[in-house]
């Protein structure tokens, strides 16, 4: 279990204490954007592999105590949460977004705040947060709490971290973009700063998300050993 705690701490801290802070700015100033991105990508891959191996080890260990269990109804509700999560992730990854890696230039476009960005400027991270939250609900063991809890904290705090990083780098252009969008999903729409236009999101993105979701459901028992569907 200590190995999983260490892996989770490593993965979370390299993002929160390096990627989203002025430490990143200083590193880029010293070694350049390209080398920094390569180094950080390598550290992230190492962290993910370490997390996966440590979770597999801890999951079958004697210290992995269950704190709660859920029934079929809760697991089926979890499937709906995962559908929404995957939809946000797929749409987020396929939408040009000034909060994404090396897409800062999008902020200069007049249509920068459109599509899913009218809902939230961090669709990918909120999708990951929902994914982690859903898995927390149906996995009440200690190892799952550490893994999915860490990823949930990272996803939610990462939205604020990226906002601060982009504000430092983009200045007034970011302020204008942020004024037209929101971090919290639907907040800008509720406040009257935005309106939802479904046609901008694209039917193809939604269909692609459903396809990815179905593949993940079918593949789930093969790469995790646990069926996604109750029963």
From TrEMBL:
Protein name (Swiss-Prot/TrEMBL): NnrU family protein
TM stretches of this protein: 35-56, 77-95, 143-162, 203-223
Membrane topology: Multi-pass membrane protein
Organism of origin: Phenylobacterium terrae
Main location: membrane
Position of the signal peptide: none
Localisation per UniProt entry: Membrane
Keywords: Membrane, Transmembrane, Transmembrane helix
Domain spans labelled NnrU: 4-227
